[in-house]
Amino acid sequence: MMKSIKGQIVFFTVFLVLLTICSSWYLSSKAFQNSLINQAFEEQSLTLENIEKSIAKLNRSEAIRFLAQKNFAHSDRISLYDLTGKIIWDSKPEKAKIEYLSGSADFQRALKEPLVFDSIYNRAKRTYLTHMLKKISLSDEELIVVLSRSLNLLTSVKGGLNLYFFLLMLILSFFAVLLSHFIIRKILTPLEELSGVASKLAEGKEARFSLIGPPEISNLAKSLREMAENLQNTLKLLNQQRNNLKQLIDYLPAGVILIDSEGKILYLNKSTIDMLDMAQGDYINKLFIGIIGLPKLIELYDELKERSEAESTIEVTNQNKRYLNCKAKRLEKGYLFLITDTTDQKQMEIARRNFIADASHEFQTPLTVIKAATEILACNPNMETSEREKLLQKIAEQQDRLSRLVDDLLYLAKLESQQTTITMGERETVDIVSILKDLVSEYKGYPQVRYIEWKVDIPFSRAPIEASYDAIKKALGNIIDNAVKYTQQKFKDQKGGLICISLDENKNFWHVSISDNGVGVPSNMTEDIFARFKRGSFKTGYREKSAGYGLGLAIAKNIIEGHGGIIELKSPIDPTTFLVSLPKLRKKD
């Protein structure tokens, strides 16, 4: 309000009126106050002279009786004090509250000066008081006579003046506002109209100019009208170019954020919203720090205040884990952020690194066995044939294990790098019933399962799904293989082992349940049983051995989830039960 001409005119008009009234009130009240105080001084001086003449030749007792009988001043209070400041007599004892005045500055002055006069404002009584002190010599001693007067008239008159000037201030302020509005209407109304037109032009809207008004303003309106026409044509061209550029940037696969020098977002494309998992909405002209909740992006923004360019890798884990590369550059009047999705490259890098680390660890055991057996053979050329055959058989077994490990590692690495076209093969209509029956028949033929009892409950003739036959068979086969392995490790060559396989359905899924009463899943593995190289263990005597190299369930999980299904550990022991849910084949319209 105060920054506008209209506000300044109103403010200064009212200010001058109030300043004039307040100055008049102050000068009037001050003059009246001084007049009453001077009058009190003259009257109290005359009274003190009369008192001094009357009691100068009397002693203290005679002076007190004389003052008590005579009435020198109706409005004044007379008090007598000795030179120590102790009160001797008071004409109005009911008002006397101070017995000693020795600590008073006026009293000390009265001991030295012929006459002391002072006026004060009593806040408690809300009135003005005058005091006059004079030292008078009696026949037997010297006393201090004090005259006190309450200027009630001054208080009442000042109250009336306050009310009068307050009402006058309200009335004149009202007329001052009216006068200022009249001046504004005559002078500033045409300028306000031009300002409104200019605002519409700034917003890109059409506006009409009024040429009515003083010559200076009408000439300005003509110039603005010509400028507006040129501006409209320029704005149309700029809007067209801006829309073309916006469409181009919106369809870029990279995120783009443009920020002004105050930290407000000037532009943000759709790719940025998708990459950062932001809610759909309008973010223009909103603070960058308040909208972007990623600490690394904010750190990058702060870093640009000291450097012209910066770069950082950001990890987003809101929904799907993403890795983003953000390059930022400081512009002349703002900042530019370019965000690219490097999730695929990062996942490939992680898969490669994990593959190397895990494979190196798992290769160590079979390679150690092969090396040890080879060294024994080399050091014992005359070894018995049966012992030599055992070592050679062990070398062959470990070589087979290495081959299977390499095959599974390559298969899992391809799954985790999302190369579905390589690992899944072409999708086709696959029958789960057929796959389960083939797997059961295959595993029943193994010699190590001759003591294991099988319970298969498949009440359906067909259970069709859309999948890769080889991939689904490998996933279900890995689960059954674990069931056989851990059941045989518990019961060995004794009866009692049981593997149950059943098939069920609901509206959208086929449910395959595979359970066994083997060694079970340790409690410390239930959370990450499907992670790579997580394997169960079993006790042999006093030692605990691990079984397999822990890739079967990791492969099964990636295959099942790659087909839109779910694999769960429903029970870790007694029996150990895995449930696989695969989506049914959709009926074609």
UniProtKB/TrEMBL annotation:
The keyword Transmembrane helix applies. Its EC number is 2.7.13.3. The chain crosses the membrane at residues 163-184. Its main location: membrane. One of its GO terms (biological process) is cellular response to phosphate starvation. CDD domains: HAMP (cd06225), HATPase (cd00075), HisKA (cd00082), PAS (cd00130). InterPro entries: BphY/WalK/GraS-like, HAMP_dom, HATPase_C_sf, HATPase_dom, His_kinase_dom, HisK_dim/P_dom, HisK_dim/P_sf, PAS. Residues 221-248 form a coiled coil. This is histidine kinase. It comes from Acetomicrobium thermoterrenum DSM 13490.
